[in-house]
Amino acid sequence: MPIVLDHVSYVYEADTPLARKALDDICLEIPDGQFVGVIGHTGSGKSTLMQHLNGLMKATSGHVYFNGEDIDGEKYDKKKLRSRVGLVFQYPEHQLFEIDVFTDVCFGPKNLGLTQEEAEARAREALELVGLPEEVYRQSPFEISGGQKRRAAIAGVLAMKPQVLILDEPTAGLDPKGRDEILQQIKRLQTQTGLTILLVSHSMEDVAEYVDRILVMNDGRIMLDGTPKEVFGHVEELERVGLAAPQVTYIMRALKKKGLEVDVDVITIREATEEILKALQDRG
Amino acid sequence: MIRDITLGQYYQIDSVIHRLDPRVKLGGTLLFIISLFFFQNVWCYLLAALFLAVVIKLSRVPFKYIVKGMKAILFLLILTVIFNLFLTPGTPLVTFFGGKVRITEEGLKLAVFMAIRLAFLIIGSSIMTLTTTPNNLTDGMERLLRPLRVFRVPVHEGAMMMSIALRFIPILLEETDKIMKAQTARGADFESGNLIQRAKAMVPLLVPLIISAFRRANDLAMAMEARCYRGGENRTKMKPLIYRTEDYLAYFCVALYLGAGVFLGRL
């Protein structure tokens, strides 16, 4: 179910002296099954854009189409949309409220009008998908570790079986191990279930490693749009708006300057290792 | 939605009124409110209206914005008018239901005056909060109440509590907004259903909100302690309040207004 944005603009606190444009004439198409990374520094409009995709915010002008239908149309069922487009907010563990993890994950499916059994089946499935061990199911969501809380919260959205999953900085505040685990699980989810995933992040490494396509946002506009290799080729432009390419790209550039014949378009550590080894072998 | 509450909020713009010492604004507002309750005739109210109009003009806060904040107390206003209108004894003007319910001349007069009084009172005090940052306001209050320390009233602690409370209003509103959105994304519905269903729907909002309030309070307490905060004793200010010429001039204007009020009150 593709998402299409047609000239979407959004103004915060319109008609007051505090009015500011958060989104400026965004046109965008996201096909099924794509893993999209959205990067941009604070205030670039990425979170605002994400909230437009499941109808939590209404565009000041322009239209958002999900599966060909205008989501702000009068007869459109927003609740259904929200079950199709799952949105995991920043620090999603702050929304946990139930007496135990399992009941909390059931909250979403039950809101969709499913029976207790169906909701429980879905909750179990979602919890397995995010890799939470069974012994935490009956624990209070306030007593488990930070990484587990985050996963429980993500499961809460997954249990609604969305076709599109939006994650706003899912790795913020996690240690490197927790970060890698969550990202790997998200990637696995995408390959296994064919979900469309939008990952908002400001870590270039996260994005470079996992996504098919990167959107770079700046000042409410989409500045760059392309595969990670294409986008990180524009290092100067990225730096101008306070972003950067992955660190490994810089290392490759430095190596090339020093005279090692390597490909500078490399964006992940794995690729870099191969590239450097190859260059060293060529040198003999 | 929730952010539409303007009562007690600061309106950021630069104006003569904004730059006044908070003590002047606090004192002026207090005197203005007291004056409203002594005024008895139409001339006095015209004077008060004129005074308010000048202050609003000087403050550069759009009148529309001030009125928007009054919506919240509209109910109170209407209730007062109704009570005064129907429950004041005196010469009857109109009677309903065979004389059981009546509007009297005195009642009508009282209702009108009361409505004007309340409206002016709220406009007057909202101008104060709209033009003064919460921090300045509590600073001014602390300074004005300082004499009470003689009676062991914890003036500084009270002021600190108040400024923290005020500071947290926008934060908690934002948090509410965020949690509401997060739960809406999980299919929660805050807008439909009967009273009981709606009250139940608040649980997924209130539990995280209260937890987050505690978390923030904890963090703040820790941060204050880390900076060696230990109450008001011997504490100095980074920006002490100092009266300037404009402030004395403003006091003079308030005095002038009160004088005119006393004069007009005798007419």
**Uncertain spans of chain B:** none
Query: What fraction, in percent, of the residue positions of chain B are helical?
Result: 55-70%
Average pLDDT of chain A: 88
How many separate helices of chain A?
Answer: 11
Distance between the termini of chain A: 51 Å
Query: Do you know the CATH architecture of chain A?
Result: 3-Layer(aba) Sandwich
Chain pair sharing the greatest interface? A-B, 25 and 20 residues
* Shape estimate of chain A: globular
Overall pLDDT of chain B? 86
Query: In total, how many beta strands of chain B?
Result: 2
Unreliable runs of chain A: none
Instruction: Name the structural class of chain B.
Output: mainly alpha
Order of helical and strand elements of chain A? EEEHEEHEHHHEHEHEEHHHH
Characteristic key phrases:
heterodimer; A: 284 residues; alpha/beta; Rossmann fold; six-stranded mixed beta sheet; four-stranded antiparallel beta sheet; 10 strands; B: 267 residues; mainly alpha; two-stranded antiparallel sheet
What would your notes on this structure say?
The complex is a heterodimer of chains A (284) and B (267). By secondary structure, chain A is α/β, with parallel strands linked by helices. Chain A has one domain (3-228): P-loop containing nucleotide triphosphate hydrolases (Rossmann fold, 3-Layer(aba) Sandwich), CATH 3.40.50. Chain A contains 11 helices and 10 strands. Chain A has helices at residues 46-53, 78-84, 101-111, 116-129, 146-158, 176-193, 204-210, 228-232, 235-240, 247-257, 269-283; strands at residues 3-12, 20-30, 35-39, 61-66, 69-70, 85-88, 164-168, 196-200, 213-218, 221-226. In chain A, the strands form 2 sheets. Chain A has a 6-stranded mixed sheet, sandwiched between helices. Chain A has a 4-stranded antiparallel sheet with strand order 2-1-4-5, covered by helices on one side. In chain A, a hairpin with a 2-residue loop joins strand 9 (213-218) and strand 10. The N and C termini of chain A lie far apart (51 Å). By secondary structure, chain B is mostly helical. Chain B has a domain at 1-132 and 247-267. Chain B contains 11 helices and 2 strands; from the N terminus they run H-H-H-H-H-E-E-H-H-H-H-H-H. Chain B has helices at residues 16-19, 22-38, 42-59, 63-70, 74-87, 105-131, 134-145, 155-185, 195-201, 203-226, 245-265, and strands at 92-96, 101-104. A two-stranded antiparallel sheet of chain B has the order 1-2. The longest helix of chain B is centred in the middle third of the chain and has 31 residues, at 155-185.
